[in-house]
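Worked problem 6 (solution included).
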Amino acid sequence: MTKLQKWIVVGLTTAGLGLGAAAASANMGHCQHGGFDKEKFAQHMQQREARLHAQLKLSADQETAWTSFTEKMRPSPGEGPKHEELAGLKTPERMERMAEMMKQHEARMTERVAAVKEFYAVLTPAQQKVFDDNFMAGHKGARARGK
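Solution. The predicted structure is:
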């Protein structure tokens, strides 16, 4: 994988899904700076999840896939480095840790892509359109820019 591809994966993790990246940001000490509230973010994500669920109008047969999908998309407990952990390292060690984090983010992104594909496959074409239009709402990705 090229460096550009790795940066794209990291960018997608941060901008596209937001779930794991925001949790990682919270663990990196952003709460200390007053810029991130874990509880508020969790509430916001639950609201977005509920809104998407309602818009998809899932059948009873699709509910199991939805539950599996949402569980796989949630951030893992402790996902991301602790700010103090990085602050105490010398620059080469910090860079090595950051490279390791990129690998972890890439692996987690790969898992999330698989979860999206698995869930997307059980949706009807109309539901896929709703999902396409709403899953990344607020992130203004390439799809939104291309319109």
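Discussion: Helices lie at 3-17, 19-27, 38-56, 63-73, 83-87, 91-120, 125-134, 142-145.
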